[in-house]
């Protein structure tokens, strides 16, 4: 049995994937868990960190908000993916990610806790990002 066959037969846990997207979505950990190292979207998430560091080096006088904007957008994408993956019905999840696995997914209350936390933190980050962006664009950062 080859390694590729073993990886295809492994059971992907929906609650764990959602937790990865919530905690490490900005780095694409959930994408690499689901699709492996060849996932382009995962690498795009991961590229946000060096992009933010590069912006900090190239534009040290720029506002901190602009310097971390790639990482912030990647985090917001991770929160959105956590909600989409976590709210997917178990049978659809199994058909998409566990087609070769003999086990069936049965998510419970831990997934609900992760989804509530994702919604709370994700909405907070989105609102804070929009508020800071509008502050910088319309007042030049007069409020902070």
Write up this protein:
It is a single chain. It is built from 8 helices and no strands. Helix 2 packs antiparallel against helix 6 (69-86), helix 2 runs parallel beside helix 8 (109-139) and helix 4 runs antiparallel to helix 6. By secondary structure, it is an all-alpha fold. The protein starts with a helix and ends in a 5-residue tail after the last helix.
Contiguous helical run count:
8
Structural class: mainly alpha
Query: N-to-C terminal Cα separation, in Å?
Result: 59 Å
Unreliable runs: none
Q: Helix proportion of residues, in percent?
A: over 70%
β-strand number: 0
Radius of gyration: 18 Å
Secondary-structure element series? HHHHHHHH
The coarse overall form would be elongated
Assess the beta-strand content as a share of residues.
Answer: under 5%
Largest sheet features? none
Query: Average pLDDT, to the nearest integer?
Result: 90
Question: What's the helix and strand layout?
Answer:
Elements: H1 3-9, H2 14-24, H3 29-35, H4 40-58, H5 64-67, H6 69-86, H7 90-97, H8 109-139
Helix pairs in contact: 2-3, 2-6, 2-8, 4-6, 6-8
Top keywords for this entry?
144 residues; mainly alpha; 73% helix; 0% strand; elongated
Give a short synopsis of this structure.
This protein has helices spanning 3-9, 14-24, 29-35, 40-58, 64-67, 69-86, 90-97, 109-139.
């Amino acid at each position: 049995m080859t390694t590729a066959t073993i990886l295809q037969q492994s059971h992907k846990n929906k609650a764990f994937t959602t937790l990865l997207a919530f905690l490490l979505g900005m780095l694409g950990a959930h994408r690499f868990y689901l699709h492996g190292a060849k996932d382009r979207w995962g690498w795009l998430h991961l590229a946000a960190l060096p992009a933010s560091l590069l912006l900090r080096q190239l534009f040290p006088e720029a506002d901190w908000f602009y310097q971390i904007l790639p990482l912030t957008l990647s985090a917001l994408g991770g929160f959105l993916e956590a909600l989409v993956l976590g709210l997917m019905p178990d049978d659809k999840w199994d058909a998409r990610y566990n087609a070769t696995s003999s086990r069936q997914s049965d998510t419970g209350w831990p997934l609900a806790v992760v989804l509530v936390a994702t919604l709370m933190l994700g909405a907070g980050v989105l609102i804070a990002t929009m508020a800071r962006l509008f502050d910088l664009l319309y007042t030049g950062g007069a409020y902070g």
